[in-house]
């Protein structure tokens, strides 16, 4: 079973991280969420202290892992929040297990990539196969602007270290899912019945505002939110704004 942590009491929330990261991505959001919710954070397969991800791992495999954790903690109807790769996993859960998903939040998510966007992510996947440290450096460059690097050098170092600590085979297996997963869930977005939030930063070059608008158009009960001036790592860059948006979103079912 996936490595996971549970904190707080109340309606269940599950938080899913992105490629190369781990459940500590959510540390800055937890204080604002656990006050009124029971929050489960997981390390996806191939990440953190969970087991490795083998070549050929599928989006369905990652979603099944998460469902096992949801069952293990005794949750039935869950607010599912996914970041980046985690958003694809969350969407898969909302499509295949709609009775288990109270609300869906897609944070910094990709969606219905254009041919140019798909070429770009496949290029990053190919670069990771040949030069993983270089790919990590490039990700840090996309995620942190100069002001944020100067403001929080320790955080930058922590994220850099987390990325480099990944087992290369597991990272590539999961990045392959990230690069292709939107093609799997894209045609099925209209099947999602859970109230959905699609939130991203205005300056995110990969999970763009346009993608959040595409999600809002494709999912019947979805609302797009764009956080001005933010890049990709909303749970770390703008935790208070993200928590406020999530809390408001969760209340759509009460």
Short description:
The protein is an alpha/beta fold and 254 residues long. The protein has helices at residues 30-34, 59-72, 85-96, 115-130, 132-143, 146-151, 153-164, 168-185, 209-218, 234-237, 239-250, and strands spanning 4-7, 12-16, 38-42, 78-83, 101-107, 196-201, 222-227. Helix 9 (209-218) links the parallel strand 6 and strand 7.
Give a structural overview.
- The protein has a single domain, classed as Rossmann fold.
- Helices cover 48% and strands 15% of the residues.
- The chain has eleven helices and seven strands.
- It has helices at 30-34, 59-72, 85-96, 115-130, 132-143, 146-151, 153-164, 168-185, 209-218, 234-237, 239-250, and strands at 4-7, 12-16, 38-42, 78-83, 101-107, 196-201, 222-227.
- Strands 1-3-2-4-5-6-7 form a seven-stranded mixed β-sheet, sandwiched between helices.
- Helix 2 crosses helix 3 (85-96) and helix 5 (132-143) packs antiparallel against helix 7 (153-164).
- The longest helix has 18 residues, at 168-185.
- It is globular and about 45 Å long.
- The relative contact order is 0.17.
